[in-house]
Specification:
The complex is a heterodimer. Chain A is mostly helical. Chain A contains six helices and no strands. Chain A is globular. Chain B is mostly helical. The longest helix of chain B is centred in the middle third of the chain and has 30 residues. Classes of the chains: A mainly alpha, B mainly alpha.
Chain lengths: 232, 224
């Protein structure tokens, strides 16, 4: 059977594109300019969305890893692989955009805050698992070991957050009302929620593409092996 | 249950007797740790204060980096001559195999810690102040060994092997190191053990979590 990219997914792409354009419009036209930080605060709406998608894809990779270990279907491993790869891009974007925002508002590119540190460590776990994937050839073994590593990573990253959360921090608490929560106007809250939703849809569209790519790649591999067998 | 402990002890004895004859793990680790200890002297040449205030962190950095050598070696031991396959076909539970590796690695780590702590104290003129360091070392080394053995079990099956171990292992061991360094530094500051209790209880929690993950998932890693 030959895998094609299903046409209905194109609709998802279209929706994602429209939503992101709308989010950008909201950020620049609807949300008010923050009084103390000025224009640079606009990064915030994207920054939170990137970090959210980065974490979401981590959790989804975990779910697929557990599914693989229980059901032993290689398709779950392909989905987990896709989620990890997309997650890494978003984590890097979140850390990068955070730095760009931090420089003017905190006067530093980097601070050892639990959120920053944990996010970056999560990125390192992602990169590690991609190295691991590249260096095992047998698909079954690869899927098994990768699933276990994903579970270890998902257990360890929250523990890291937990163990360093007592450290002094200047990162604002967006969700919940900590002592340093940001004072957001309703327009800001709306924009933020919209942007998070837009990027979640974008993530789903990317997943559809990446997963189809992984499936096609596996098919090509299988065909190659079959051809070699015929030639022999 | 009795046969479980019997095979566990036999496996540990096997590893220790290999180590006694080859001395490939502990001695290499120790020399490596000593060289880092000396490099630190040049790195902190003029920073006399940092030597004592950063003692806990520096000691654990030495332990973490040199311990990685033992993790590599402990599984490579079985990879040579396909010993792992032989071990897996033997009528021994996977948990016993895993725990025997963890315990061997733990013994090597704790012996290292018992040497590095006093040596650091002598070389850099930092009083140890209390024997409570021992508890931190015991808990920290156990967590390190339990997660490290698991990751090492993964990396020996890959093409990159030894290079991959630190890349995969260091990001996930961070919570344990944070707790170990913090409890050590409380003791180094001469504060009562009570103020280190939150960190020590974290260490215990991490040990339990990592050991549980190890026991459960080791089976999946060495399946075939």
């Amino acid at each position: 059977m030959q895998t094609f990219f299903p046409k209905k997914y194109l609709l998802l792409d279209l929706i994602a594109a429209i939503l992101i354009l709308c989010a950008a419009a909201l950020v620049f036209l609807y949300a008010p300019i923050e009084t103390t930080m000025g224009l640079v605060q606009k990064v915030f709406y994207f920054h939170v969305a990137y970090a959210w998608v980065g974490m979401l894809s981590f959790i989804i990779a975990l779910v697929f890893s557990i599914l693989y270990l229980t059901k032993r279907d290689l398709r779950f491993d392909l989905a987990s692989e896709s989620s990890v790869e997309i997650g890494l891009v978003f984590i890097l974007l979140a850390v990068g955009s955070g730095s760009i925002w931090a420089r003017p508002s905190w006067n530093t590119w980097w601070t050892w805050d639990p959120r920053l540190t944990t996010t970056t460590i999560m990125g390192l776990v992602y990169i590690g698992s991609m190295f691991l994937r590249k260096s095992i050839d047998d698909p079954e073994k690869r899927a098994r070991i990768l699933s276990v590593y994903c579970i270890i990573g998902c257990a360890s990253v929250p523990l890291t957050f937990f163990s360093i959360r007592g450290y002094r921090s200047i990162h604002p608490v967006v969700v919940g009302s900590g002592g340093m929560s940001m004072n957001m106007t309703p327009a800001m809250v709306h924009t933020l929620i919209f942007s998070v939703i837009a990027f979640t849809v974008f993530y789903l569209a990317l997943m559809a593409h990446r997963y189809t790519y992984a499936k096609i790649r596996e098919e090509v591999e299988a065909n190659k092996l079959a051809l070699e067998d015929i030639n022999e | 249950m009795k046969s479980f402990f019997h095979s566990l002890i036999t496996l540990i004895k096997k590893d220790l007797s290999i180590e006694r004859h080859t001395r490939e793990i502990f001695l290499v680790m120790l020399i490596f740790a000593l060289s880092i200890l000396f490099i630190l002297n040049f790195a902190l040449d003029t920073e006399v204060k940092a030597r004592s205030s950063g003692a806990a962190g520096l000691i654990w950095v030495i332990l973490v980096i040199s311990g990685q050598l033992s993790l590599n070696q402990i599984m490579n031991l079985e990879k040579q001559g396909n010993m792992l396959e032989a071990l897996l076909t033997a009528p021994v539970s996977r948990t016993a195999i895993y725990l025997s590796k963890v315990i061997t690695c733990f013994l090597a780590m704790i012996a290292m810690a018992l040497i590095i702590y006093p040596l650091y104290s002598i070389f850099y003129n930092t009083p140890l102040r209390s024997v409570h360091h021992l508890w931190v070392a015991l808990l920290g080394c156990w967590g390190y060994a339990s997660l490290g053995t698991l990751i090492s079990g993964m990396t020996i099956q890959t093409r990159m092997r030894d290079i991959l171990l630190p890349v995969l292992f260091f990001p996930v061991i961070i919570p344990l190191i944070v707790a170990a360094v913090n409890s050590s530094s409380v003791i180094f500051r001469g504060e009562p053990i009570g103020s280190a209790l939150p960190w020590i209880s974290q260490l215990i929690a991490f040990d339990v979590i990592f050991t549980a993950i190890g026991i459960i998932s080791f089976e999946y890693i060495v399946e075939d």
